[in-house]
């Protein structure tokens, strides 16, 4: 799976927690989940759990705290997918 | 280090079933914090409310500490809640630690929300924290409403034209008559509720 494929799937994970769908469609690797997409911090755990289910991976605490930019999320997801491959 | 940090959780927004799944709450609570729930004085507190109570404590602490530790990243399990005490009328208090910093919290739980404020001292005499219900739950309305709420509250205490601006770290800073005021402010919103806290400690006036 390449970065763009992960990004497409990640949009689906973020969709239930993103009010502005237009912003979501235009996300890049530099997009900040909270500052740009206005995702409530209380939903960050939901997003991590949904990502774990979507990619069949487990995201530990140290990795979870890096997931504030879309690009960081992709890094963590690809890293975990490679570990479990 | 004088700062302030608050948080509000709208209980109407939470997913009770998911909250109580171990894979969810284990990303917020340490094993010690999970055991802390079983103390007799918390027997009347539903587990989902306990989880979100500790979330609000940790989020408040993060906001408090971020003001002086710009590189800090929110990682709930690394902020350790040490004690939780129940008081009449669904009031809670306790202590927490993050690395070398020890903080204290005060929380209130109603049917609709959990509100928390933290302080470096167990004396909250100079700490103001309040909650308001709002009409709409979209981000823009929440953001405007919490600022108006905070400024209205300030104007009940002080004269002058107050404004809230954002620091480079996106933290709210208070301006009065065009000049920076050294009163730490914290804003939070969730669902149909907003909350603000101020630290009116006279040593920072």
Q: SSE layout and pairings?
A:
The complex is a heterodimer of chains A (85) and B (205).
Chain A: H1 3-14, H2 21-25, H3 44-55, H4 61-64, H5 70-84
Chain B: E1 5-10, H1 16-19, H2 22-25, H3 31-36, H4 47-66, E2 80-87, E3 91-98, E4 101-109, E5 113-119, E6 127-133, H5 139-157, E7 162-166, E8 172-176, E9 179-181, E10 185-190, E11 193-199
Antiparallel strand pairs in B: 1-5, 2-3, 3-4, 4-5, 6-11, 7-8, 8-9, 10-11
Overall tally of domains of chain B: 2
Cα shape of chain B: globular
CATH architecture of the largest domain in chain B: Alpha-Beta Complex
The number of domains of chain A = 1
CATH class of the largest domain in chain B: Alpha Beta
How helix-rich are the residues of chain B, as a percent range? 25-40%
Strand content of chain B: 25-35%
Query: Per CATH, what is the topology of chain A?
Result: Non-ribosomal Peptide Synthetase Peptidyl Carrier Protein, Chain A
User: What is the H level of CATH, i.e. the homologous superfamily of chain A?
Assistant: ACP-like
- Shape, principal axes of CA atoms of chain A: globular
Protein structure class of chain B: alpha+beta
Strand order within the widest beta sheet of chain B: 1-5-4-3-2
Q: Low-confidence parts of chain B, pLDDT < 50 over ≥5 residues?
A: none
Radius of gyration of chain B: 17 Å
Q: Count the helices of chain A. How many?
A: 5
According to CATH, what is the topology of the largest domain in chain B? Answer: Ribosomal Protein L22, Chain A
Strand tally of chain B: 11
């Amino acid at each position: 799976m390449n970065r763009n494929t992960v990004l497409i799937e990640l949009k689906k994970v973020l969709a239930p927690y993103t009010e502005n769908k237009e912003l979501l469609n235009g996300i890049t690797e530099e997009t900040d989940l909270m500052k740009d997409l206005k995702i409530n911090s209380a939903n960050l755990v939901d997003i991590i759990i949904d990502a774990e289910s979507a990619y069949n991976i487990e995201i530990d605490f140290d990795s979870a705290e890096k997931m504030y930019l879309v690009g960081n999320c992709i890094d963590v997801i690809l890293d975990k997918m490679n570990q479990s491959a | 280090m004088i700062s302030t940090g608050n948080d509000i959780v709208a209980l109407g927004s939470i997913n009770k079933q998911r909250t109580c799944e171990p894979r969810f709450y284990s990303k917020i609570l340490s094993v010690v914090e999970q055991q802390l729930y079983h103390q007799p004085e918390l027997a009347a507190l539903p587990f989902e409310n306990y989880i979100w109570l500790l979330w609000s404590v940790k989020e408040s602490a993060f906001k408090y500490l971020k003001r002086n530790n710009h590189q800090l990243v929110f990682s709930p399990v690394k902020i350790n809640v040490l004690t939780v005490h129940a008081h009449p009328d669904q009031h809670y208090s306790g202590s927490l630690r993050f690395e070398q910093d020890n903080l204290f919290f005060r929380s209130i739980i109603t049917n609709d929300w959990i509100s928390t404020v933290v302080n470096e001292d167990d004396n909250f005499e100079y700490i103001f924290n309040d909650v308001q219900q709002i009409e709409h739950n979209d981000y823009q309305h929440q953001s405007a409403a919490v600022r108006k709420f905070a400024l209205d509250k300030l104007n009940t205490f002080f004269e002058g034209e107050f404004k809230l601006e954002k620091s480079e770290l996106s933290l709210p800073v208070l301006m009065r008559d065009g000049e920076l005021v050294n009163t730490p402010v914290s804003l939070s919103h969730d669902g149909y509720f907003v909350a603000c806290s101020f630290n009116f400690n006279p040593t920072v006036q």
